Amino acid sequence: MAARGGALLKYLRVNVEALPPTRNPNNNGLFGLSFNAICRRFSEEVRGTFLDKSEVSDRVVNVVKNFQKVDPSKVTPNAHFQNDLGLDSLDTVEIVMALEEEFQFEIPDNEADKINTISLAIDFIASHPQAK
Amino acid sequence: MGPSTGGRTRLSGMQKQVLSLYRGFLRATRSKSPEDRREIESFVSAEFRRNSKQVDRKNFIYIEYLLRRGKKQLEQLNSPDTVGLSSMNVTFSETENPKN
């Protein structure tokens, strides 16, 4: 049992160690670098990546603070758009549209209707692979 | 309009349609030049706010009419040739005296 586990571990370790040197040859210069960058960008576009939640949180809070009808001192991650920030449903639509632009992806109507607190916005965006 | 499916929001079906139309307008302005965009956005926002205050929320027939008209205007706005407000000026004078 232990031997088998050890063998598996060794196999995995060899695999991980083997990748970086072949992937990133230093003597390839500019071409090697840009080729890797293209590869990475391409794979990100295909699969999508999740943004770091604290980054999402900062950006969402910033967008809401910059909304002209909002008192920035009231903006906390748990704030409810209508109850805490005094916004109406049309204002909420404007905020969600501003978030779409900030994160460069479209939020479908049935999801947008549910986003009425800052934390719901953060959760949705952080779990959405197309958010940039 | 009965209560909707429930959950966190308590928007009626008709409110959802209005908000969806508003989203459509705000998305459509993104493809316009910055000054056209600002002008159209402030006009559209003022229209929705004015109607939200003036129109009786139980006047479903009139709200349905406004929704239909709004969808047609959105289609016009979405065509790439539309930059301005000429069609909107017409509707503006029209809505000054809502026939309800």
From TrEMBL, chain A:
Superkingdom of source: Eukaryota
Family: Belongs to the acyl carrier protein (ACP) family.
Source organism of the structure: Salix suchowensis
PANTHER family on file: ACYL CARRIER PROTEIN, ACYL CARRIER PROTEIN 2, MITOCHONDRIAL
Gene3D superfamilies hit by this protein: ACP-like
InterPro entries: ACP (IPR003231), ACP-like_sf (IPR036736), PP-bd_ACP (IPR009081), Ppantetheine_attach_site (IPR006162)
Role according to the record: Carrier of the growing fatty acid chain in fatty acid biosynthesis.
SUPFAM superfamilies: ACP-like
The protein's name: Acyl carrier protein
Cytoplasm in keyword set: no
UniProt KW keywords: Fatty acid biosynthesis, Fatty acid metabolism, Lipid biosynthesis, Lipid metabolism, Phosphopantetheine, Phosphoprotein
Residue ranges constituting the Carrier domain according to the UniProt record: 54-129
Automatic annotation (TrEMBL), chain B:
Positions of transmembrane segments: none
Subcellular location: Mitochondrion matrix
Pfam families: Complex1_LYR (PF05347)
Family (UniProt): Belongs to the complex I LYR family. SDHAF1 subfamily.
InterPro entries: Complex1_LYR_dom, Complex1_LYR_SDHAF1_LYRM8
CDD domains in UniProt: Complex1_LYR_SDHAF1_LYRM8
Domain (Complex 1 LYR protein) ranges: 16-76
Organism for this UniProt entry: Salix suchowensis
The protein, known as: Complex 1 LYR protein domain-containing protein
Domain of life: Eukaryota
Key words of the record: Chaperone, Mitochondrion
